[in-house]
Design brief:
The model has no long low-confidence stretch (mean pLDDT about 95). The protein is built from 3 helices and 7 strands. With about 170 residues, the protein is α+β, with helices and mostly antiparallel strands.
Length: about 170
């Protein structure tokens, strides 16, 4: 089922998410919905908070090939290592539509998490995946990529989003 993606500015996107206590069929259903919503958007990562659910859940798929989907489900992800070396990617966000900015983050990270089946896992990531993971884990702590920009740039982006939101509302009304 497709879920509605919250758009910044929205106070929910700024909340810290709670860990999930246990993985059950409801969790799987929710993560399936998140994945479907992410693919439809389309995007390469989505955190539960972006559809208004304040739990530490993330779905990611950075595969470019439509035929070979490679979804990653992260429950209670915890970054346990970040490299000193950094890399820069132009980031966007499904909650900040149409806006992009170059963001510098640690180039590599290691992650502890629980998978779709409730098993404890560890994942070493670099490149685009490392950036995507760190972007999504930020969401779970109420942080958006625009928070890394200068106040001026950030305010400009938020202004644009507010304007766009009003236009959308006008059409609906
Ligand atoms: Zn995002």
């Amino acid at each position: 089922m497709l879920r509605k993606i919250l758009i910044e500015p929205d106070p929910i996107l700024r909340k810290k998410c709670d860990p999930l206590e246990k993985v059950n069929t409801d969790t799987k259903k929710l993560m399936d919905d998140m994945l479907e919503t992410m693919y439809a958007a389309p995007g390469i990562g989505l955190a539960a908070v972006q559809i208004g659910i304040l739990k530490r859940l993330v779905v990611i798929d950075i595969s470019k090939d439509e035929e070979k989907k490679n979804p990653i489900f992260l429950i209670n992800p915890e970054i346990i290592y970040q490299s000193k070396e950094t890399s820069v990617y132009e980031e966007g966000c499904l909650s900040i539509p149409g806006q992009f900015a170059e963001i510098e983050r640690p180039a590599e990270c290691t992650l502890k998490y629980i998978d779709y089946y409730g098993k404890k896992k560890e994942l070493k990531a670099d490149g685009l995946l490392a950036t995507c993971i760190q972007h999504e884990v930020d969401h779970l702590n109420g942080i958006l990529f625009i928070d890394y920009l200068s106040k001026l740039k950030k305010d400009m982006i938020i202004k644009k989003l507010v304007k766009k939101k009003k236009e959308i509302e006008r059409v609906i009304v």
